[in-house]
Amino acid sequence: MIAMHPFISFLAAFLATGIAIASGQSCTFVPKTQLHDGTPANVYFESDSRNCTLNLPEAPLETCDVSDFDVRFSPLAVFPPAKNMWPYVDLNITVIPKVFVSDIFVQLECLSSSHNENVYCKNHSFLRKYGEFYWPCRQHQVLSEKKDVKLPYTFEHACFRMHGPSQYRFNVTILPQRCRLSYLVAMPPDEQVEQRIKDFKNSVGKTPIVADWSPLFTIDANDPNSLVLRFARNDPDASDVTVALYLKESKSVSNLLQKEVLPSPKTEVSIAAPAGEYNAFVYVDHPYCVLKCPEGKSTDCRVCNFTYLNFTLHDHKMNGIQRFKHYVFFVAKVLCYVLGVLIIICLLVVLAMYLYCKFIQPRILRRRPPQAFAMTETPDVLIVYTDDCPEHTASVVAFAELLENHANAHVWIDTKDLLNHSVKPSMWLMRAISEVKFIILVFSAASKQVIAGEALPQRRPFPDLFSPAVRAVTTRINELTSRNGVDLTRNPLKTDSNALDRFIVARFAYTSPSAIPEFFSLLKCRHVVIPQDLGRLFGYLHEVDAPSDKAVIEIDADTTYLKDSMQRFAEYAHDNPDWLKERMKQTETVYHDPREFERLPLNTITEATTVDELAQHYEHLSKPDDDDDDKHADTGIAASSEKFELLGSMNDISSDSD
């Protein structure tokens, strides 16, 4: 006969005996239910899982009132008397009803386990009877009369063999209330939950087991107002126990919801928790270990032994105030996300528009053939402006020459027509406004001040006619809008009526848009910027409208002289930042009501207005003699300097009509 090593003989005997216990373990049930007289109550205990399962009430079952029941789970170390058997852990379940119940069902369901000897999770053939699968189930039934049973009473059972690490769900069903309580229980390895088992294994094994204590962990989610995290305290050193709850935001991100250190003898903590997926830990936070090692320090870091549970809450576990705060925070969070998304969308839209206008649209326009037209007519064009400075006036003159030389226009401008001293400026202006086809109002830096009544010092042999011209044009506009019903407040760049097409509001590129008074900036007439819109302006003068604001009208014009004049003005303004203040004549001011343009009288000048009527309307004008045959070649105004004296002040060009 071959002699066996003592340890091999012990291991073989343990495995044979252990399997027999796992497959057909017996437990002793000691009833603790008593009657009022102190005698034991008549109690029936069903240990057959099939019979217990068949006796369960059918679903649906409501959740029991947690205030009527106290359910506890704790590990119970079992040391068999035989020396060839390993010690093991049974789960002790205690149910203490505070109201009378006739039946208590306790059913185990294994969720996960890494222990190969865990028959509840690994060997499901052990749980089959008559071809059907039944989770381990125990029934405690009170047969005594309700009035005779002493409350509260205790149902205690320790027949479920545990193998750690593993996770279970326990369902406690109550009759006749027809309700149920569910608990999640996490079991650590045997040598961690019970230090005596570790000591026993170290005494017989060659390799010592180094494991700190970690408790049996229970999740109680039956209370709608809070989530209860509970553990069984059987640590011989009565250590402080840390409970940590993490809410999973994603597969790789978890946020700490609450962390609390419980000194002895505390064993549970209640937490307000929203619905979601959670990871819960319970451990002893020793100074030489941590729950999670930082990245890159795994070699020098020691992880504390812990008990772990992952679970999902389908409902919020919080009271009314906490629910309200949670909903407010949730709504605010959602609004922040939505606002952030909208901001990102807006930024993307703005970026797309910028890229389109900056890069894509110019390419499209370059590929699109420019619009060309023939300038067969010679329209009369009046240009009115303010004599801000010689450089600005030179730019206006260059602009007028460009229209005559390249736009085939006959330009009425004071620098050309009023050099003849026999021409009276006021009569020339009124006749020009009545006869020309287009009137271009060039606004510049001094325009608003001149319109407001401030006078520019006269440096030419004729006065500045901008103010009376603007007032006369405003009168004509009021007449047209009153007669044709044109709305002045609509889109200023588009018009559905050609009543105001003869009036063109213009400014040079070096002039700010704010130099244009509000009345004219909102006017539904044509607006141009010189020299950018010269092609569009040429089209206006020859009754050719661009199909869109971005369309190109091709012109063959040399703008070198105009651009040089504008450049000289820009240099002058840069070298003399106070040029306008020095130019203005502060002592000679004529104040006007700023609303005067809006209430100028209507129907004062018509196309059929004669010179006699103009002289009668503007009382300062002189009427020419009938026998004067010497007419001006361009204007038809008599050349007698005695009868048409040159107006030297702004007061002589009053166009008030009361």
UniProtKB/TrEMBL annotation:
Stretches assigned to coiled coil: none
Cellular localization per UniProt: Membrane
Highest taxon listed in the record's lineage: Eukaryota
Cellular component aspect of the GO annotation: membrane
Species name: Panagrellus redivivus (Microworm)
Entries under PROSITE patterns matching the protein: SEFIR (PS51534)
Chain ranges passing through the membrane: 327-357
Presence of the UniProt keyword Transmembrane helix in the record: yes
Protein name, as recorded: SEFIR domain-containing protein
Annotated signal peptide: 1-24
Region span, Disordered: 621-658
